[in-house]
Write a structure and sequence with these properties.
Helix content is about 80%, strand content about 0%. By secondary structure, the protein is an all-alpha fold. It has one domain (about 5-195, about 210-430): Growth Hormone, Chain: A (Up-down Bundle), CATH 1.20.1250.20. The longest helix is centred in the middle third of the chain and has 31 residues, at about 220-250. The relative contact order is 0.16.
């Protein structure tokens, strides 16, 4: 293996650490719902507003970050995002009343828009038929980060206080910003495309508004964007309400929550890698492969989540088994959707395309906790989690089905464009 190919795994390692610690910090507030709500004396709806604030901020900033990532060095912008993460987390730990906490916690959404640059940089280090697997590895960090956050919330926060926990995670963000700044090198956009294999120089492909507009002429992207809006509702509801649901509606104490959720979250983490690997494997056999794997994931996740939540309160083993199965299938879509966006878009506008996809996702995600809080206050957390999840995943399946009619033509079109670029570049170098 050549040195550049060895180096790309170092980049994956650094980005995994960044995502792991960032997700720990971002998702920590879910397991800390109890002590935060008690200190500020707030309802489920008011807590949902805290979550929605950060999601709204990140939603507004996605297109801006995407544009910046396609114009400038992604590695340096990622270092900046990590520094912002650490700083805003400290601010949210300092304030002492509800409204300032809503505002400072909303400011933590500024850096949550950073992942499109990270994913597009990885896409330039790895070939198309390997990307879903790599994204699956990186996205292992999300549930593992959630698990670390859960342990910190249940075991560390009662001892040192939830504010001190935020001081710790904020400090780690600043450390990671230094690591990324000095440890991650920029790479030419499009470097790993198969048409440029064996070429030491491939030229510089720069962002253009025409290329950005072409992204949204592809029908595959229409359905990806629709799926993104619907697909994030379950994740945000489950992330921010499930621990409280277990404690208040299923009667789990803190240790029972930990022993139940820890293995489920580890299975969830494995689902990212399994889904990404299956997506790459089937993609080599049919261009619809990643969409097929994603479709299976949302349907099976919906079935097993419904069975779990409808299991009798006393049937804890049954509940655990069905939740574990739901956790395995739920992440199948995530790495494959990222790869699908890059399968149909030009290298110089991939951050922008991904940012718009996340913008649409967060438009749904920003309202999900608030809607769930309203339903929970009016009915129950069980009804909030189940109704939102089943409706959202049902819509996601329909949108994936629509994608299958257009994905082949859009991928073939991109490959033809990249072949033309490679031919032009070889001619330029020979002249």
């Amino acid at each position: 293996m050549t040195k550049p190919k060895r180096y790309r795994w170092k980049v994956v390692g650094i980005f995994f650490a960044f995502m792991l610690l960032h997700q720990t910090d971002k998702l920590l507030i879910g397991p800390l719902k109890g002590p935060i709500s008690e200190e500020f004396g707030i309802t489920n709806t008011q807590f949902g507003l805290i979550i929605s604030g950060a999601l709204i901020v990140s939603t507004v900033l996605y297109p801006i970050w995407g544009y910046l990532y396609d114009r400038y060095a992604r590695s340096k912008l990622l270092a900046l995002a990590s520094f912002i993460w650490g700083s805003t987390t400290w601010l949210s730990a300092i304030v002492r009343s509800y409204i300032p906490f809503v505002i400072t916690r909303a400011s933590t959404g500024i850096d949550d828009s950073s992942y499109p640059g990270l994913y597009s940089l990885i896409a330039d280090y790895f070939e198309p038929d390997k990307r879903s697997k790599i994204y699956g590895v990186l996205q292992l960090s999300q549930p593992i980060g959630y698990l670390i956050g859960m342990v910190m919330a249940l075991m560390l926060a009662p001892v040192i206080g939830w504010r001190t926990v935020f001081y710790i995670t904020g400090a780690l963000g600043i450390v990671l910003s230094i690591t990324i700044y000095f440890g991650v090198k920029e790479i030419p956009r499009g470097k790993s495309e198969p048409e440029f294999e064996g070429m030491d120089e491939i030229g510089q492909f720069n962002f253009s508004w025409d290329a950005a507009k072409d992204v949204f002429k592809k029908k595959t992207m229409w359905f990806v964007l629709l799926q993104g809006f619907a697909g994030v509702f379950p994740w945000n509801v489950i992330t921010y309400f499930f621990f409280d649901y277990l404690a208040k509606e299923r009667g789990y104490d803190e240790m029972s929550v930990l022993t139940t959720m820890a293995p489920i979250i580890l299975i969830l983490a494995g689902g990212y890698f399994v889904g990404g690997s299956l997506g790459d494997w089937l993609f080599k056999r049919t261009l619809k492969g990643r969409v097929i794997v994603s479709s299976v994931g949302v349907i099976m996740g919906a079935i097993f989540l419904s069975l779990a939540l409808n299991a009798p309160i006393e049937a804890r083993t049954t509940f655990f088994i069905f939740m574990a199965l739901a956790a395995l299938f739920m992440p199948f879509s995530s790495p494959n959707v990222v790869s699908t966006v890059y399968d149909v878009t030009m290298p110089e506008v991939r951050s922008t395309a991904q940012s718009v996809e996340y913008f649409i996702e967060n438009a749904g995600a920003a309202t999900a906790p608030l809607i769930a809080g309203i339903i929970a206050d009016a009915s129950s957390m069980h009804n909030a989690i189940l109704s939102i999840s089943l409706i959202a995943w049902g819509l996601s399946f329909l949108f994936y089905f629509g994608t299958m009619f257009f994905i082949d033509a859009d991928i073939t079109s991109l490959r033809a464009q990249m072949s033309k670029r490679a031919e032009d570049e070889k001619a330029r170098q020979a002249a």
